[in-house]
């Protein structure tokens, strides 16, 4: 009678993770399989890589959107920052436009020149469109002279009217608008971008920023008198340059202390403020009625 007994269950060993196979000499060889830990790691690696790729795409999207929103604008004659901002719907108005392009425009937001590149919707430095800032009194941009309007007066004496039309505000008009208490010249109500002419031949002594006058040009003439042209939006001449009667010296505008676009015109006995004489009488003496 056989004695019943119990079979002992073999303990698991490291070979339990493999497959036992008989070798050529009858020896048992353990062939390892992929461990559970390795399989789990592999399963986690794929989602991690996918997440990293998704994060890269997500972070690139705002950059692409920002680049798409950024535009470049080339300044033309008659432009000024508030006009550009309004026409191109720049959020934040001319202040934001100036802030984004300060390195291009320079320290004076009212002095911009045709051909200057401005960035709309982003910083010029960030988009690589930064241009060297122009120094107002050292490097005025020269614009192409335009043909004299048919309405502009000229005379055989070699004098012309600075712009077409009649003046409005009279010489020596009084009021709080002028720091001296009275008007030192006359005003011509012309639109921004109107060609401004030298009234006669002479030498440019000033072409640049003139404080309350904005961008101005002052010319010395052969008779010792000086003509002054204020609030220009662009300059067409530089200091030391010789000009002829009727030559374009700039474009009218609204720079400096103004309430709107116009040309401020003076005749002086010297180049500086305070030496003014009656410009209407001076022009009339040379056959020009304004």
Question: Any overview of this molecule?
Answer:
By secondary structure, the protein is an alpha+beta fold. The protein folds into 2 domains: 71-127, LysM domain (Membrane-bound Lytic Murein Transglycosylase D, Chain A), CATH 3.10.350.10; 135-290, Distorted Sandwich (Glucose Permease (Domain IIA)). The protein is built from 6 helices and 13 strands. It has helices at 36-69, 81-87, 93-100, 102-105, 124-127, 279-284, and strands at residues 18-22, 28-32, 71-74, 117-120, 186-188, 195-197, 202-209, 215-221, 226-235, 242-243, 248-252, 263-268, 276-277. Helix 2 crosses helix 3. It is elongated and about 55 Å long.
Describe the structure using short key phrases.
13 strands; disordered N terminus; alpha+beta; 9-stranded antiparallel beta sheet; 6 helices; Membrane-bound Lytic Murein Transglycosylase D, Chain A; 2 domains; 290 residues; Glucose Permease (Domain IIA)
Major beta-sheet overview: 9 strands, antiparallel
Could you tell me the number of beta strands?
13
Per the principal axes of the C-alpha atoms, what is the gross shape? elongated
Q: What percent strand?
A: 15-25%
Annotated CATH architecture of the largest domain: Distorted Sandwich
